[in-house]
Predict the 3D structure of the following.
Amino acid sequence: PSREAAATVTRSFRAIAEMLDAEADELGRIDRIAGDGDHGIGMHRGSRAAADAAQRAADRGAGARTVLQWAADAWSDAGGGTSGAIWGEMLVALGDSLGDDRAVDAGTVADGVLRMKDAVMSFGKAQRGDKTMVDAIVPFADRLAQRVQAGDRLLDAWTDAAEEATRAAEATASMTARLGRARSHGDRSLGTPDPGAVSFALVTRTVLDILKG
Ligand code: ADP
Ligand code: MG
Ligand code: MG
């Protein structure tokens, strides 16, 4: 199996869980303004369970796809809510691209991230501008693919894409929610970014730290 990719994925989950432990209160605060306030706790629980499951799979010698499948199941079970289900879908899609036995390169990763984007959009039916995490993942995935296709190495492409995701997540503050729980609260979300977009951008920056080694 692709042990090197599996090890990078497992390290990433551990770092993501630690980051979300620290950010949970702030994500909850943002979700409370126009949603139900559980985004921080959900993301923290989901990522912690995913990190534990990834470790168990990696300890058994699993490849990246299997590690991501175990993590996906754990995240959606323990995280709950819309975001738990969506993160589960995204991680399975990424695993399908990375595979258990293939050598993973920048092209494989960029392709996997494009599949993550497709998974979110077909699962949740949100489009850009609906004020969801789609508003962060679309620019992230597209920029990553663009830069890799132009010949950048993964670290440079990911650096640029993570900056783009961060800007895009901040820009959701000027949008009004049209989907999900936030919709019923209408304009109350104006001036506050979408919690799922913010947490997605935070995850991309945490993975960047892992890629930097
Ligand atoms: P819940 O809304 O069930 O309480 P969370 O609070 O954990 O779940 O997650 C809320 C986030 O989920 C939102 O900020 C948004 O980014 C994302 N989200 C909600 N609905 C959709 C959707 N249809 N497509 C994509 N993302 C969505
Ligand atoms: Mg919520
Ligand atoms: Mg909820």
About this structure: The pocket of adenosine-5'-diphosphate (ligand 1) is lined by residues 31, 35-36, 38-39, 42, 81-83, 86, 120, 124-126, 132-134, 179-181, 194-197 (CB under 6 Å). The chain has a mean pLDDT of 95.
